[in-house]
Amino acid sequence: MALNAHEFMSTMEKRIAFTGEDKTLLKENADWGKEIASEMADHFYDYLGRDAEMSAIINAKEGRIHRLRETFVQWFYEMFTGMDEWGNAYADRRWRIGLVHVQIGIGPQHVVPAMAIVVNAVGQKLKASGKDEALRDALGRICMIDLAFIEQAYVEVSSAAVLKETGWTEGLFRRLIATGANSM
Ligand code: HEM
To answer: Is pTM, for the whole model, over 0.90?
Structure first.
């Protein structure tokens, strides 16, 4: 069940309809993205800080919140630059971000609302800055691709761990999941 991050990236691009026009628009607005990244980080960490469980995670270690702010700003900017035209380096980086969150025990219930906060905050900022709606759509699409990476990492890592521990085949595992879902 090991995920090929590069293939996953191109599948997501097609599935989410992230186009060449979206990429051009994002690159043209990369400086603006850099300018607002810190403000977006404020929204993001204020939001996480208001949730008791998420606040405990982000403040669990000395200096973590500071480090997180920096990584968020970098992550946000990379959505605009695409790093290597949203290629293999971009996919590897997104996969790595997914794995980091799985290691810390951050699941879909945390990540989905957090990404919604980013989409919402950037949407409001776009409006206030008089930016085109097409830019909002492009950003929404790349945010969804990034979200898909983090979510998929969760599934891939949990499945791989179960398979390794039990020695089950992938087919058996899938059947057990389907049976489990049926009985709920
Ligand atoms: C939109 C969703 C999110 C994005 C884009 C995001 C982005 C990132 C990035 C770029 C990193 C650095 C990864 C690395 O070291 O390679 C990171 C690490 C981390 N994130 Fe997130 N994150 C998201 C959601 C969350 C949520 C919901 C939480 C908490 C509940 C969280 C807590 C953490 C923690 C604790 C780390 C590790 C920090 C450390 O180095 O100690 N993240 N995140």
So the answer is: yes
Give the span between the Cα atoms of 91 and 153, in whole angstroms. Answer: 12
Give the CA dihedral 97, 98, 99, 102, nearest 10 degrees.
120
Distance 121 CA to ligand 1 centre (A): 18
Q: What percent of the chain has pLDDT over 90?
A: 85
Q: Which CATH number fits domain 5-154: 2.40.170.20, 1.10.490.10, 3.40.50.300, 2.40.50.140?
A: 1.10.490.10
* Lining residues, ligand 1, CB within 6 Å: 48, 54, 57-58, 61, 64, 67-68, 71-72, 75, 96-97, 100-101, 104, 106, 110-111, 114-115, 118, 146
- How does pLDDT run across 110-127, given as a tens digit for each residue? 999 999 999 999 999 999
